[in-house]
Amino acid sequence: MGASRRDQDDFGERPSRVQRHLVLSIQLRGRLGSDRSGAGQYQGQRTDKVLKTVDLEWQKEQAVSDLDLKLSITDFVADFAFNSTEKKVFSKTVEHANPAVRLAVNERSTVQSTPWIFYQFPDLFDIKESKYQFELVGYKPKKFTGLQIAKNPGINIVWTGSTMIVVGITLSSFIFHRRIWTKIIPTPEGVTVYVGGTTHKSQIDFQKEFRKLADKLRTLSATPS
């Protein structure tokens, strides 16, 4: 499974805001034995004795003077994955399903390494030249707030247009158009008046008004001149 470009940028290839505000706890354990083989590897087994727990901030080197160590965090991914084609580490998702940090180790100025330390798999990688075991025992992001300030010079025009639209819709609910036609035909006895009308809204009210108009015309026609 791959990752989107945004996921790779935010969690694998460059520091994101979350990374820059991380505080991680690294636990150091010692090993039994102190001899070294001809290959320069430390001969010893891991013990359960915790020598020290160090809290590291993002990309800030911290010296552990009593153990002759210098440690710093150089990378962090929330859901570790490796692209074998591009040889790059990235985060598959934004969820913290398999968190890992890249630890820069400078031990006695002779052992320099940058291993990946996994939160869920502490024994996955080992620094054979070191007499210490490194474990990621916890991490927490610092709280921060992001504010965005924007200015829109045309906001007054937008609000004016919106107000006019609301007023227009409101008026259209109470004001409607009605049409009335009349046709007057002269006759030997006088005139004959034909009246018709139409409306698009409130047809029941229009019918009542039309009847009143027709009754008024009949009353006028019945009145002797």
Give a structural overview:
- The chain is built from 4 helices and 12 strands.
- The radius of gyration is 42 Å and the shape is rod-shaped.
- The protein is α+β, with helices and mostly antiparallel strands and 225 residues long.
- It folds into 2 domains: 5-141, no CATH class; 177-225, no CATH class.
- The strands form 4 sheets. Strands 3, 4, 7, 8 and 9 form a 5-stranded antiparallel sheet that branches. Strands 2-1-10 form a 3-stranded antiparallel sheet. It has a two-stranded antiparallel ribbon with strand order 5-6.
- 24% of the residues lie in helices and 39% in strands.
Descriptive tags:
225 residues; alpha+beta; five-stranded antiparallel beta sheet; three-stranded antiparallel beta sheet; 4 helices; rod-shaped
The percentage helix is 10-25%
Task: Report the β-strand fraction as a percent range.
Answer: 35-45%
Low-confidence segments, ≥5 residues, pLDDT <50? Answer: 1-18, 35-41
| Spatial extent as radius of gyration | 42 Å
| Terminal Cα span | 98 Å
